[in-house]
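Q: Joint fold for the lines below.
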Amino acid sequence: MSPQPQAAVGAPLSRVDGRLKVTGEAQYAAEFDVDGVVHAVIVDASIGRGRIAGVDTRDAEAHPGVLRVIHHRNAPKLPYRDNPGSNNLPGRRLRVFQDDKVLFHGQPVAVVVATTLEAAQHGASLVKVDYDAEQPSTDLAEAEAGEPTKYARGDAEAGLRESAVRMDLTYRMARNHHNPMETHATIARWDGGKLTVWDKTQWVVGTQTELSTVFDVPLKSVRVINPFVGGAFGSGLRCWPHTVVAALAAREMKRPVKVVLTRRQMYFGTGFRPSYEYRLRLGSDQRGRLRATVHEMDAETSSYETFEEGVMLAGQMFYSTPNVSQAYRKVPLDVNSPIWMRGPGFANASFAIESAMDELAHRLRIDPIELRLRNEPAEDESNGLPWSTRRLRECYTVGAREFGWDRRNPKPRSRRDGDWLIGLGMAGAVYDPNNMAAKARARLNADGTAVIEAASSDMGPGTYTSQAQVAADALGLAMRAVDFRLGDSLYPQTPPHGGSMTMMCVGSATLDACDKIRRQAIKLAVEDEESPLYGAKAEDIVVRSGRLHVQGTPARGETYQRLLTRNNLSRLEADGSWAGPSDPERHSYYSYGAVFTEVGVDATLGLVRVRRMLGVYDCGRIVSPKLADSQALGGMVGGIGQALLEHTVTDHRDGRIVNADLAGYLVPVNADIPEIKAIYLEGEDMQADPLGVKGIGEIVQVGVASAIANAVFNATGRRVRELPITAEALL
Amino acid sequence: MHPFSFTKAATTREALNSGRRGGRYIAGGTTLVDLMRETVERPETLVDISDLPLREVRVTERGGLRIGALVSMSETAAHPKVRSLFPVISEALELSASAQLRNMATIGGNIMQRTRCTYFRDVTADCNKREPGSGCAAREGFNRMHAILGTSDACVATHPSDVAVAFAALEATVQLLGPDGERRVPFADFLLKPGSTPNREQAIRQGELITAVDIPALPRPLESGYLKVRDRQSYEFALTSAAVALHIRGGVIREAKVAAGGVGTVPWKLPAVEQHVIGERPSDALWKAAAEKAVQGARPLSGNRFKVDLLKRTVERQLRIVGGTR
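A: Joint structure:
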């Protein structure tokens, strides 16, 4: 952090854009009023695999208002150049309307463009597509895996053989969909060779590069705008086919085109958290010290791309284990490609690992927290690096005290409340915050206000607010004098808004830009004979409320306004940057947490209800406590969904998703959510970045599902190794 | 959504005229509009009946209830007479849908609502109910939420209503008005089991209007209530449910009305359970033995075997909640 006093950072401020959101003034992608826009509705494949034999568009085209039906037989060939450095997955990305192949149920096979949304919708229902259908393969349990990604240290098999205690456990986790409130939408407009796109995305820069490569136009000819995102949880981390459809249709029609996915289309038009089968074999000594773990993970991917996520790291670094082997197999299926979803990889790995640790604790009659403490590593055993900060022990201690862990009876079925069996469970949590280069640009105006710009995004964590807090303190301005702007590819480039990296990477770039401006102003003042600060030492000067003064002598100073005006400067400007991870890394950086929960289980009726939940987090500095709370509470709610409700169901006979709406795919409602509390360990991680932050948005979902499953075991004695935990597992 | 025309009926006569010409009645629209958006329903003409004078709840001379067809779910649930005479109706309603939906949806529409079978609602899937003769995708597909009672080779879809379970238990009557005048249909005959014609769901004729649902008087004191077992604590359909009403005098059960939901192609009346408890004294053993009879004739599917056990437990629990153990 800068030597500036902290006024905004650390203050529990409300969102600066809150009023815009609650009054409906915040404009989301589909809401931009673009002159002459026409509407497009995508026709989805109704088979799971095969070929399109014929497309009959006569009825659709005859419907009043329908302008055109575009499909593979009349669509122009698109260049689809490679797009390295994007979030596209290894493989060959789906190319819309380029051939007759159907790779998954719901793939776009045609688009109907009409003057009104209603005409386009009805037109889409009138398009007749004939198929030569083949049997799709969509069942993770039945399909062949690809080559595994492997990791090994020591000799895990030998370690297992030599272990006094051995366990062999298999966990299964359902596919989950992000289901943000705002469905994905794109408006595309071509002005000659220039393309402007209003697109729901967590990465305007990513959509920009993808469209530039798909259409083979210069990067600077594509502009992507998206100031507000109505939730995403990862669904906006890459550019999806419908965005290309919008741009393609707009070019063909020579008019702006809007595409809004339906809720149903969100289930195959965007990605998902893949289903997993996670077999974990572990060996320990009689005191619970791990000797060996063997992790075999099978996860869904599509037939055309290979999706990978950070599901291996937790098994390598969370517990001290001399012998580890891992095989992460991606199983290609006739489905659309997965994408990262909140707590990616870790939210799955932790269900297996943290459930298994609970099983081991029960078997050895050791308290689950004590077992974890016995396995705390002194360093990152995957790479030998020291931890930057790892305050997991404190998370456990504080959590146990605040939650009343000592009231837990380790014997299952020992607490009852009427028809409800009561159980307590906990789990450790870890997430690897991503770290990539970022830029920001700042401008201090002569009127004492500041504007900071970075491409970035705000899908809900409050980027507008937290970045403005950093800028306000670095510049010594009041929050209201700072305007942070984001969501435009014309602004300085930033990494994807995900992976818990925005505060660290964009925040550090913002800090850098604002520090530079403040130093420029101070230099200007101390070298300006007309300034009361003339001759003062630059390092002695601080800025508060837009006024520069000598620290300890508030009377000696002047405002930015006076300083700039006197010097005939309309503004000061600076570019800021964050370089990304240092090479080589000197420390191992992770966010940590501990989740505690109390559940009630009506064992007769198979009902699980969460009664209390507490998360304790070691995430470095908390820039914006109120926003951190909405992250933490939201993440824990997501974890409750993952644990008890969320399950995308595929009919393996034809590859269709059978619960592709919010009536069939259950997410928690208010009645499912009990009292939830989050505690953040005070402090910062100055090894991580100049702000001392480690990222919080992802880790808050990690560990929740295992804590709940462990609590269900404590309540009932029934160990459920499959998510979601539903009535049939408990009857 | 397919194009349609929309008219609003100012009088019952106007509504019946439009109905006779093929118009579909719409009131709250909470089911019909959804299904139109999915193109499952493709009516050519909608007749809005929400202005018709069918918004009254009243106690009949003998102590039963008449609930007008256009009374909303929330108004019905909150009505003091419904609450005091038949809490099972209020509870079933309040455990249904969401507050917003309950404010819009009407009693007549509620018993006309169509199944939540996901294949029925996906026009690209096979469904005999939606498209007779196309087959039933659910029978061998995802059928966790489906019926174990009253199914046929053609259809295994559950009836989704909660209040209809209470109506079935209480042996309600549906009051209909058509071009040929009024008629009354016992609730048990109103909703049709699928058989070989799952597309026919109600014993209602083209152009007929539901004007009211009548709840017959029952001997007092009457204890009643509704239990709904579901994955989510609110805003979700039943895995299983039970509506129970008991008249206990002198420590002996004199009258019993029991039906189950979430398990049948129609709300499932449980006469064997009723018979088992009538004349007996409440006890845990009685409830358990009676509940065993709830699953007579059950034919579970690949994904819902657990419902057999769960139904017994649900009925047993609700008998105990309503009847207590003395």
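Q: Anything notable?
A: Residues 5-48 of chain B form a domain with the Uridine Diphospho-n-acetylenolpyruvylglucosamine Reductase; domain 2 fold (CATH 3.30.43). Chain B has twelve helices and twelve strands.
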